[in-house]
Design a protein that fits this description.
There is one protein chain. 24% of the residues lie in helices and 29% in strands. It is α+β, with helices and mostly antiparallel strands. Helix 2 packs across helix 3 and helix 2 packs across helix 4. It has an eight-stranded antiparallel β-barrel with strand order 1-2-3-4-5-6-7-8. The N and C termini lie far apart (46 Å). The protein contains six helices and nine strands; from the N terminus they run H-H-H-H-H-E-E-E-E-E-E-E-E-E-H. The protein has two domains: 62 residues, Orthogonal Bundle (434 Repressor (Amino-terminal Domain)), CATH 1.10.260.40; 145 residues, Lipocalin (Beta Barrel), CATH 2.40.128. Strand 5 and strand 6 form a beta hairpin. This is Helix-turn-helix transcriptional regulator.
Length: 238
C-alpha cells in the first residue's frame, strides 16, 4: 500500500509529515487524510510524493509477511499514527509539577516516566513517587500532527484524566494543562484544571517529590518552572 510505503520512508528518514507535504507541494490535510485512509491517494498526489521522496511508491510488491503493530513501529491512528523513531525524543523520566490542591501556595511534585511499549505499539506513561500512591496515573501518549501538542490520556473504565502539553522547549521541557478530578469532602469529586510542567530528569538525578512549600531548597526553582505555563503563553487559563 502507498500509505505503508510513505510511513516507512518517514520513519527511515526521521522526516515529519509537514516537511514531506511541503517538499511534495501538497497540503498537510491532504497527506494526513490519505495516510489515515479517509481519502484515496490520487495519481497527482502519488506522483508528487514519489518526486519528493525520490522513490517509486506504485507497483510495489505486496509484503506478505505478517507484521504486528509493534513490528511496524507505529502508534494506531487514534493516537496520531506517530512512529517510534519520530517520538524517541519524549522517552525518559520527568519531574512533574502542579499546584498543590490542598495548599494553593505549595507545589506538588512527582515523577513521570514515558517509554515505548512494544506490546501495544505506542508511547505509554506512568507516574511514580507520589505521596498519594492510590491516585497514581498511567496511560497512553497521543501526538496528532495537526496541533503539534502532546496528550497524556488516562482512561479507566470510562473515567478520563487528561494532560495537554505544548511542543517541547529547547531543553526538552513540556508545559500545559492538567484536567482531572479533585477529591472533596466525603466521596465528592469536582472537575479541576490547573497548570502543569514536566522537566526532563538526567540519568541518576534525584528529584524532589511530594508537597514543596516555601523555604524548601527547591521551591523557587519549581515555582519558576510552573509559572512559565501562563507567563510564557504555553496555556491560557481563563
Amino acid at each position: 500500500m502507498i500509505a505503508d510505503a510513505v510511513r516507512e520512508e518517514l520513519a527511515r528518514r526521521r522526516m515529519s509529515r509537514q516537511a514531506l507535504a511541503d517538499r511534495a507541494r501538497i497540503s498537510i490535510s491532504t497527506l494526513e487524510k490519505a495516510l489515515a485512509g479517509s481519502r484515496p491517494f490520487t495519481l497527482a498526489t502519488t506522483v508528487r510524493l514519489e518526486e519528493a521522496l525520490g522513490k517509486k511508491l506504485r507497483g510495489r510488491a505486496p509484503d506478505t509477511t505478517a507484521r504486528s503493530p509493534a513490528a511496524a513501529g507505529f502508534a494506531p491512528p487514534e493516537l496520531g499514527s506517530y512512529s517510534r523513531p519520530g517520538m524517541a525524543w519524549i522517552e525518559g523520566a520527568y519531574l512533574t509539577l502542579r499546584p498543590s490542591f490542598g495548599d494553593p501556595a505549595a507545589i506538588y511534585a512527582y515523577r513521570t516516566d514515558i517509554a515505548w511499549s512494544d506490546e501495544s505499539s505506542r508511547m505509554v506513561f506512568r507516574e511514580g513517587e507520589r505521596l498519594d500512591a492510590a491516585f497514581t496515573q498511567f496511560g497512553e501518549v497521543s501526538a496528532p500532527h495537526q496541533s503539534g501538542h502532546i496528550y497524556l490520556v488516562t482512561n479507566r473504565h470510562g473515567q478520563h484524566r487528561l494532560v495537554v502539553l505544548s511542543r517541547p522547549t529547547i531543553e526538552g521541557s513540556l508545559y500545559g494543562v492538567l484536567l482531572t478530578l479533585q477529591s472533596g469532602r466525603g466521596s465528592q469529586l469536582a472537575p479541576v484544571a490547573t497548570a502543569i510542567a514536566m522537566i526532563p530528569l538526567k540519568r541518576g538525578e534525584t528529584a524532589p517529590a511530594g508537597r514543596i512549600t516555601r523555604g524548601d531548597p527547591s521551591y523557587e526553582r519549581c515555582r519558576r518552572e510552573l509559572d512559565r505555563v501562563k507567563a510564557d503563553g504555553f496555556a491560557v487559563l481563563l
